[in-house]
Specification:
Elements lengths: L4 E4 L4 H13 L12 E4 L7 H7 L5 H13 L4 E3 L9 H6 L4 E3 L1 H11 L4 E5 L2 H5 L2 H8 L3 E3 L3 H15 L3 H17 L4 E4 L4 H4 L1 H6 L4 E3 H21 L1
Helix pairs in contact: 1-12, 5-12, 8-9
């Protein structure tokens, strides 16, 4: 049997579906049978990651571990999480499983390295920004990372929560000036370091795909590469 990709989702549900669709889109399949097997757990009662990190709210770790076990028991060979902020607990999750996991942060930074970028902007949740999740990784690659101002970062968070609440027009209205300002500051590309952001900026990405680094896309590309490496070795 070929490997099975497990998706630890629900953070949020729309981002989970987006990751699944991108996994399908990046698979060079010609028939149903050639697609990558995947199992998704999208149970959205996982506590808010940003509130935990910034306001000492309820930790999401126990719920993430509970749903990771569902994926393990269902036969997942490799597990991914289409949520950037949840990677604050990535090492904790890895310590509790023998199943391989692919980091969205590592995948995005690898993509940046492959493109030889030296100056990127970062749009992400305030928790991801404050925890330096991307900045630490980028500094090791000697990549300059430009962040929004505090007021702009507040607008990014409001945009993300507006999207989660179904107010798509407000989400775009809040986010567009921030990404425009990052571009004005001369960044080569903007990391979309929250998995809701590619959904909010879908028209802009379609119009100018080279201006953005979609972290979900990076994660999916690395996952597809992992799958074909391991499925070929399994077949051999």
């Amino acid at each position: 049997m070929n490997p099975v990709i497990g998706i630890l989702g629900g953070m949020g549900p729309g981002a989970t579906v987006d990751a699944m669709q991108k996994l399908i889109n990046n698979t060079p399949a010609h028939t149903d049978q050639e697609h990558i097997p995947m199992i998704a757990v999208s149970i959205p009662d996982i506590p808010d990651r940003t509130r935990c990190i910034l306001q000492q709210g309820t930790s999401p770790l126990s719920k993430m571990l509970q749903y990771l076990r569902i994926l393990e028991n269902a036969g997942a060979s490799c597990i991914i999480m289409p949520c950037n902020t949840a990677h604050y607990w990535f090492d904790d999750l890895k310590r509790h499983t023998r199943t391989e996991m692919i980091s969205i942060i590592d995948a995005t930074c690898q993509w940046i390295d492959e493109q030889s970028l030296r100056h990127v902007g970062l749009l992400a949740t305030t928790a991801t920004v404050r925890a330096d999740i991307y900045q630490h990784a980028l500094s090791r690659q000697q990549v300059r990372c430009t962040l929004p101002s505090q007021a702009e970062q507040d607008a990014v968070m409001d945009s993300i929560y507006a999207y989660k609440a179904g107010n798509f027009a407000l989400a775009r209205q809040l986010l567009l000036p921030v990404q425009t300002e990052l571009q004005r500051q001369g960044v080569e590309k903007i990391i979309l370091g929250c998995t809701e952001l590619p959904l909010i900026l879908a028209p802009e990405i379609l119009a100018a795909p080279a201006a953005y680094l979609d972290a979900t896309e990076a994660l999916v590309r690395k996952t597809v590469a992992w799958y074909y490496t391991h499925s070929h070795s399994a077949a051999a």
